[in-house]
Amino acid sequence: FVLLIYSGTKRKRRELAKFAEERILPRLVIGVSRWRTNLKHGLFVAGVIFLLLGLLGPRWGFHWEDIKRRGVDLVVVLDTSESMLSQDVKPNRLERAKREIYDLVKMVRGDRLGLVVFSGAAFVQCPLTLDYGAFLMFLDYIDTTIVPQKGTNLGEALQVATGSFDEQKRSSKAIILISDGGNLQGDPKAAAKMAKEKGVRIYTIGIGREDEESPIPVSSGFKYSEGRMVTTKLEDEMLQEIALSTGGAYVRSVTGDIDLEKIYYEEINQKMEKRELQGARAKRWEERFQWPLWVATLLLALEIVVAERQRHATD
Fold it and tell me: Rounded to 5 degrees, what are φ and ψ at 202?
């Protein structure tokens, strides 16, 4: 704005120089005050500066605010067995499952999230937390090598997930199990019964296709055993039984996040009681953008009022 004003002033002087000689100009522009012109320009530039300061959203001073979070404790149990590398869903079952979990994190509001991974064994990858950023960081590191033991031990996965809840807290508890259901180990029915006795509902998502066999990719091509290519398909009978036995629900993974929307919004959100999970105090800064905006308004109003030409009294 300063450059534009300077350029406009120079252009105005050049045009006046074409009209009359410099010694005659004061008689032709009687009452025009250079000081007043500079004042108007200064008021305009200062008004714009304060307007921009207001748009920056300055804040100073703060107050403490009590924050209460209400929700459920939700543990996601993710299958990381080799069969999850199958590409019957794109890009593969494991990556599709991780995307499902990313979608879940976008949906939750005030719920604590935990993460358990399993194949032939199971362990807690992320304990229950309200820090969704930390949860996603743990999720990023998951691949099929994170658990050394091979296989699909659904029973141990459910036991570890059930044990990750704080039994002293009366919060509502739920497990979301994402698996292709194949190559079962352990006793998932007994684990589901134990979860139900502790008030935990289990919701299951079957990932993969059940209508055709799919090979399992490895670094050298595809996985073979005893000279035959190893194939896999979705085996969801056990997943359905686990969900129904605990009062949960089973859905099959499809393109997009429709399945998780159904589980979270129609089941967990509506049918499970939300309890207060954590009380905390947060520092809330006071918004002060009004002050520079008021100053900008005043300066720009003065710029309009101030005239370039002085008024002279007449005899």
Answer: -115, 125
Is the pTM here over 0.70, yes or no?
no
Give the pLDDT confidence of 82-99 residue by residue, as tens digits. 888 888 888 889 998 999
Three-state DSSP string of 160-203:
HHHHCCCCCCCCCEEEEEEECCCCECCCHHHHHHHHHHCCEEEE
Tokens found for residue 179: 């698996």
Could you tell me the sign of the dihedral formed by the alpha carbons of 182, 185, 188, 191, in that order?
negative
Closest by CA position to 99, among listed 74, 73, 136, 125: 136
Separation of alpha carbons 5 and 13, rounded Å: 12
Per the DSSP assignment, residues forming a β-bridge with 2 are none
Question: Which residue type sits at 105?
Answer: V
**What percent of the chain is predicted at pLDDT more than 70?**
82
Give the CA distances from residue 223 to residues 90, 121, 145, 232, 258, in Å, rounded to whole numbers and listed in that order.
19, 21, 15, 11, 32
Tokens of 132: 């969704």
- Which tokens belong to 166? 């704080």
Could you tell me the sign of the dihedral formed by the alpha carbons of 144, 146, 151, 152, in that order?
Answer: negative
**Residue pair 124/160 in contact by the 8 Å Cβ criterion:** yes
